[in-house]
Structures are given as C-alpha cells and as structure tokens.
Amino acid sequence: MNLFGKVAVIYGGAGSIGGAIAEAFVAAGAEVHLAGRTEATLRAKAGQLGARYAVVDATDEQAVDEHAATFERIDISVNAITDNDVQGTPMVEMSVEDYLSPVVTSVRARFLTSRAAARHMIRQKSGVILFFGGTGDASAHRRWQLGGLLAAFDAVESMRRQLAAELGQHGIRVVTLQTGGIPESVPAEHREPIETDIVGETLLGRAATLEDVGRTATFVASDWGRTITGSQVNITCGSVLD
C-alpha cells in the first residue's frame, strides 16, 4: 500500500499519536503537513520527518479555515488533538466546566477540521477523514473516573456516522481508529500502572503500539482501505469486542 501523491493534514501532529501517524504517512510517500498550537514541538517533529508544519488552533474557526485555504487539495485529514480532559476525579466532585471541557474541545475541533477538509474533498470527489478514539463496551473498571472523556468520544462517533452518511456520495470516507489505550502515549513517569491496566483488559495480553497506530492509519487512508467508511477500526487488542 502507498500514499504517494496524497496530501495529508494532521492536527495534533506533534503529539505521540499524531506524530506516529505522520511518521507512517511519510514512509508511505504522502506529503504531510503537521498542525498544532505549539511551534517548538511542531518544528522539531517536522524537521525529524521532513514534513511541513503550521501553527493552528483546531478550535479556532478562522484559523482552521484560513489554514485549509492554503491548500490546493487535501486528501487525508487526521484529527489527533488531545481532549483537555480531567481524569481521576469522581463525577460527583467535578465541576461542570471540567466535565464538559473534553466534550466541547473535541466536538468543536473535529467539526471544524472535518468541515474544512470536506470542502476540498467534495470538489475532488475523494478523501479520507480520520479520527482517533472511538467507543465500545469497555469494562466497568476501565470506565472508572474518566470524567467527560467517554462522553466526548461518544459525541465524536455520532459526528463520524453523520459525516460518513452525508459525504459518502462525494467519495469521501470517514473512519475512527478505536483505541483501548496506547501505553507509549502516556508520560513515562505514569506509564507502568496504566500499561498494566490496559494490557490486563486485552485478549491478546498486549496493547497496541504507536507503530501499530501508524500502520493501521496508513492502511485505512490508502486505497487498500477504500471499502471502509462510517465505522470504527478496532485496534484494542480485544479489550473492546464488536
């Protein structure tokens, strides 16, 4: 599979998930553009990969639209921004602002970036919009004290289904990479207990890696994944069953 000739924009491209997808896309031959809010990390990641970058706040409507307008075409749009979530606090002790923060951030950012990309893709009669997160019947233990994160994931999945239904007639696919947690994306000082929890919930006795994320994203975005739209691609190693 390859992405030669494809133009990919990755929001949150300097983060661990976005960076892994960017690395895989570059290896597959795509022209990759990283977007995010922190120039230093964007510059470093872009230099490492030989990609291009722009400072863009994915929750800023004008910034997203102006950035998208600089492209002649967009073939792949990936939104891997973090959701500004507060975890580890019981809901009954949370403020409404903390609970709603990931919902508002996630929905707003993914709506704006998807809309901007779709306007290009409709003219082209092709394109792939890719999200990261997903939902499913995870165990009660894994749902413990996650704040508004799962509500945000549910809202984005509703958006994904609606986008796929509206955009399919234009040859545009909309897909979510469904995660059960990627231990490598967790800061090293907090990783061990979280990795134990994530791996313990899987059927395979291991968690997906950042390399797995990049490879799956490349497959989905390529012509090899051309039959997949309106759905989640499950990379949970069995912690969530379809």
UniProtKB/TrEMBL annotation:
Q: Which InterPro entries match?
A: NAD(P)-bd_dom_sf (IPR036291), SDR_DHRS6-like (IPR051122), SDR_fam (IPR002347)
Keywords noted in UniProt: Oxidoreductase
Instruction: Write down what this protein is called.
Output: SDR family oxidoreductase
Gene3D superfamilies xref list: NAD(P)-binding Rossmann-like Domain
A Pfam family that this protein carries is adh_short_C2
Q: Which family does it belong to?
A: Belongs to the short-chain dehydrogenases/reductases (SDR) family.
